[in-house]
Amino acid sequence: MSIYEIIILSVALALDALIVSFSYGAVIKEKRCKSAFSLAFSFGFFQMLMPVLGWYFTNLVYYYLERYSKWIVFTIFFILGCKFLKDAITKTENNTISCISLTCILCLALATSIDAFGAGASIKLLDIEIWKPAVIIGIITYTMSFFGFLIAGILKNISEKHVGILGALILFYLALKSVI
Predict the structure, then answer these.
(1) What are the contacts of 87-91 at 24+ separation with CB within 8 A?
(2) Which has more pLDDT, 80 or 13?
(3) Which residues of 7-34 are buried (b: 16+ CB within 10 A; e: fewer)?
C-alpha cells in the first residue's frame, strides 16, 4: 500500500468526522478552540486506534462486530440527531444546541471510527504493518476535524435553530448512510 493510497484511505475515513465536526462548529458558540480540539483529538485518536484494533483482532472480533457495526453507527447517529433536533426546536437563550460532554464526544468518536476498524482488518488481510497507516489516518482525521469545526464558524450569523436542524439532518443522513 503506497503512501498515496494510505492518504486516500485516510481522507475517506475522516469524512464522517469532518461532517460531524463541521456540524458542531456551526452551533457551538462558546469555548470554540477547546471544543474544536476536544472533538478533533477524540476523532483522530479513535480513527488511529480502531484500525490497530481491527488489525490485531481481525480473526476474532471483526466477524462478530462487522455484523452489527452499521446498526451501532445508525443508533448512535440517530440518537444524536434526535438530540440536535430536540435542542434546536426547544432552544432558549440559555441552552446550547449540541452535546459536548465527554460521553457525547466518545460516542461520536466511536461512531465515526467503526469503518476504520474494518480498514484495519483489510490492512491485516493485505499483510501490511499497521502503525504507519494508523498514524496517518489519525493525523488526517484530526486535521480535517479541527479545521472543519473552525471553518463552520462562518455560519455564526445564521439562526442557531436552523443550523441545529441542519446538524440533525446531517446526523440523520449519516445514520441512514451507515445502513444503506
Answers:
(1) 87/164, 88/160, 88/161, 88/162, 88/163, 88/164, 88/165, 88/167, 88/168, 89/161, 89/165, 91/160, 91/161, 91/164
(2) 13
(3) eebbeebbebbbbbbbbbbbbbeeebee
What are the sequence ranges of the domains in the chain? 3-179
What pLDDT digit, counting tens, does each position of 1-23 carry? Answer: 788 888 888 888 888 888 888 88
Rounded to a whole number, what is the distance in angstroms from the first to the last CA of the chain?
A: 28
- pTM over cut 0.70: yes
Residue 130 pLDDT: 93
172 and 44 in contact (C-beta within 8 Å)? no
